[in-house]
Amino acid sequence: MNLIVTVQEAVTAFAPWMEPTAAELDAIEAEWPVTDAEVELLDAQIIAFDRVPNEVDMQRVRRALDQLLTARVDAANLAGTGDAA
Fold first, then answer.
1. The whole model's pTM is what?
2. N or C: where does the chain have the smaller number of CB atoms within 10 Å of the terminal CB?
3. What pLDDT, on the 0 to 100 scale, is given for residue 9?
């Protein structure tokens, strides 16, 4: 039983070094709009694949794709100006 506690203490002793740095958190925050738009597109595609897609489903996919492309352009522009990590 003491061996398990010792192993647990050794694992948790390294926890501060395993945390993301401020720069990594800033990079994640900068990428978040793209990630969110990708999830929206995936949701729209799953709905369209789940049944015979109608016009509303196709509009939702097109709208999600437009939002994803806009988010990617915005992210690229931020990266080009040095504002993003």
1. 0.68
2. N
3. 54
